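Lab notebook, bench 4. Still working through the backlog of constructs that have no structural model yet. Next entry is a single chain of 128 residues. Request: give me the structure tokens for it.
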Amino acid sequence: MIDEQQVRAKLARYVELVDAVDIDGILALYAEDAVVEDPVGKPPYVGIEAISRFYREGLGRLNASARLDGSIRATCGCGAVPFCVDLDWGGQARSIEVIDVMEFDAEGRIRSMKAFWGDANMIAREQP
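Model written out:
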């Protein structure tokens, strides 16, 4: 089981990779049989192939960037990271306020990710 400090580092790295739109880097964080629910309540993406499609079809097309929006919370083997994803959503500049909760396997790979956000967390933002 990975410790609290390792969980914090993995979650911080995840946000950095989302900001860089580094899909291959993001996927390298996941276990082969991982499950992603983004957002929670939608059908889950099960396995690395489905998770790859999710990131490539979503994040890869939206001209996105990401930034932390609070402190990372962690315990041994799991943690939560509040962050914002800034993106172009249907031609409009938006920010999605997200809290991702992740559980890690013994090798330190993400075995589950649950993204908590809804319509109320998608806000208009000023374009630069």
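Notes after review: The CA atoms of residues 16 and 66 lie 7 Å apart. The first helix runs from residue 4 to 19. Flag for follow-up if needed.
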